[in-house]
Amino acid sequence: MATELPVETHVSLNGANGSTAQDATSFANKDALARMLKGGVIMDVTTEEQARIAEEAGASAVMALERIPADIRIEGGVSRMSDPGMIKRIKAAVTIPVMAKARIGHFVECQILDAIGIDFIDESEVLTPADNVHHVTKHGYKAPFVCGCRNLGEALRRISEGAAMIRTKGEAGTGDVVEAVKHMRTLNSEIKKAQNLSDEELYVMAKEIGAPYDLLKKTAQLGRLPVVNFAAGGVATPADAALMMQLGCDGVFVGSGIFRSGDPAKRAKAIVQAVTHYNNPQILAEVSEGLGEAMVGVSVSSLPESQKLQGRGW
Amino acid sequence: MVNADIPITVGVLALQGAFSEHLQLLKKASQALPSNITFRFLEIRTKEALSSCDALIVPGGESTTMSLVAERSGLLEPLREFVKVYRKPVWGTCAGMILLAEEANRTKKGGQELIGGLDVRVKRNHFGSQTESFSTPLSLPFLGDPTPFYGYFIRAPIVEHILPPTTPASSLENNTADTVTAPSKKPINDVAASFTSPDEVRILGRLTPSKLTTTEEDAKLGITSPSEGRIVAVEQGNCFGTSFHPELGSDIRIHKWWLEKVVEKVETKRRLEAES
């Protein structure tokens, strides 16, 4: 992790006054859970068995969904929130936090997930968007939200709407890390640019990237996003995971990469070790050995624009 | 007085979770201590790094993740030795407190490995999922300051039961099939053994019952007065545990209090070792 998330932002961003009790809707309590996930791996799972494999591998949370992105890509059709019964069964099977996805803009799916006591909601481009203009206003929910981004403007718009955690979009379900790298590199270079700007210039940049000025200013001061930021979309190997960590991510989501590989349990463990020891090539070499077949995947450069999921979200 | 030429090395276990927050608070708190004491603060991922530490914080995060990664990184036994054989000062917050407990309930299927050190039984995720997380001012008399400490309880555990220190945990009543225990170990020498004292668990903080902090189960048990509130801070010998996250926020008081204890213990240890 290149730049640490200062603990001060925990108080300053969310306006917690430090004197009265606050329930889970308080941004401070959402940011707190996001921070507890740092340095960890969040794995996509579709069954209780997979959730248990993920927990045994050391996942710091699981994402419960009916179809992993690779299958969504192949099968097509409309992808929606998973059956709440299935999410509850996964919740009952593990003790680690359970996340679930809602469609972009589908605030009723979010209300349902909040009502069943989900630990985190991913308003995700992997599902078919329900609103072509608006994202969900995420402040009022008890569950914290994570949202995808391709660049700084997108990330800060989501934080402004209430997201307590950001992830790169990457290109889900491909096993090709190139887009996650592109999105993280874009974030990093835009943040560097913002750091060198005067206030007058920051106002212009805020307008150009469609981000609230205050959040852009905060980001420039910190030299990083003001919330926890994970990598997602195409991570398939321990080396991919460590690459994203060295580029400055706080942790990693692995979707199709695990349960589409030859030996999911072994690969999952290896990716967990790789995220902890991301700066130790010796350990990375050890855990990368004999993992069996990686997800076959699909090269993003061969995908037509219409099949890319990352363009969803506004 | 500690020789300022030999810094006190305080590590934060950096396998997963909010270790950076602890390091930030430790640095701030150390500036509020006498300037003749020098500290080194380190992220700990290997047993080699651990062996250079005089004291350790086990941070918040996911206790199952930390426990599994520690085991696979060859750190679990060195951690147990650090706590139970060398009896060096250790502080666990939230997930860290779970790992420092001798017993834990509501662990994952098949249980989880614990480090141990605190003769308590903790209950993981006592309040439920994240939608039941909360933050609240706490009264912590051990700080010697009536200003409440703002505590973040994030999928937090509580200390459910104080265990008698001399009784092997496994022989206790009301063990359930899913209770997991930590293995016991003997201190390496008299110096280390002296840090076990006091050997009983001291309760340092309780949660004042309120609508936000009382679960259905607590309500059934009739937990209503502050003196009956759930235990959220304990100390025993060299071990200290908090259910909440003092590393979140800008209040350095608990970090400062703990660092003062570390300095005191390291001073005593260095003096005793020089004498022997």
From TrEMBL, chain A:
Which residues bind D-glyceraldehyde 3-phosphate per the record?
R185
Q: What is this protein called?
A: pyridoxal 5'-phosphate synthase (glutamine hydrolyzing)
**Gene Ontology annotations of biological process type:** amino acid metabolic process; pyridoxal phosphate biosynthetic process; pyridoxine biosynthetic process
The yes or no answer to whether the keyword Lyase is present is yes
Q: Does the keyword Lyase apply?
A: yes
The pathway that the record names for this protein is: Cofactor biosynthesis; pyridoxal 5'-phosphate biosynthesis
Q: List the Pfam families hit by this protein, alphabetically.
A: SOR_SNZ
Extract the GO molecular function terms from the UniProt entry: pyridoxal 5'-phosphate synthase (glutamine hydrolysing) activity
Its annotated function is as follows: Catalyzes the formation of pyridoxal 5'-phosphate from ribose 5-phosphate (RBP), glyceraldehyde 3-phosphate (G3P) and ammonia. The ammonia is provided by PDX2. Can also use ribulose 5-phosphate and dihydroxyacetone phosphate as substrates, resulting from enzyme-catalyzed isomerization of RBP and G3P, respectively. Also plays an indirect role in resistance to singlet oxygen-generating photosensitizers.
What InterPro entries would the database entry show?
Aldolase_TIM, PdxS/SNZ, PdxS/SNZ_N, RibuloseP-bd_barrel
Which residues participate directly in catalysis? K101
Catalytic activity of the protein: aldehydo-D-ribose 5-phosphate + D-glyceraldehyde 3-phosphate + L-glutamine = pyridoxal 5'-phosphate + L-glutamate + phosphate + 3 H2O + H(+)
Instruction: Return the similarity comment.
Output: Belongs to the PdxS/SNZ family.
Where is D-ribose 5-phosphate annotated to bind? D44, G173, G234, G255, S256
Q: Which keywords are on file for this protein?
A: Lyase, Pyridoxal phosphate, Schiff base
Every PdxS/SNZ N-terminal domain range: 28-232
Query: Cross-referenced SUPFAM superfamilies, in alphabetical order?
Result: Ribulose-phoshate binding barrel
Q: What is its EC number?
A: 4.3.3.6
TrEMBL record, chain B:
Gene3D superfamilies the record matches: 3.40.50.880
Q: Does the keyword Lyase apply?
A: yes
Provide the E.C. number(s) assigned to this enzyme.
3.5.1.2
Q: Where are the transmembrane segments?
A: none
Query: GO biological process: what's one of them?
Result: pyridoxine metabolic process
Q: Which domain of life is it from?
A: Eukaryota
Q: Name one GO cellular component term.
A: cytosol
Task: List the catalysed reactions.
Answer: L-glutamine + H2O = L-glutamate + NH4(+)
* EC top class, as a word: hydrolase
Q: Which UniProt keywords apply?
A: Glutamine amidotransferase, Hydrolase, Lyase
Q: Which InterPro entries match?
A: Class_I_gatase-like (IPR029062), PdxT/SNO (IPR002161), PdxT/SNO_CS (IPR021196)
MF term (GO), any: glutaminase activity
Q: What is this protein called?
A: glutaminase
* Record lineage: Eukaryota, Fungi, Dikarya, Ascomycota, Pezizomycotina
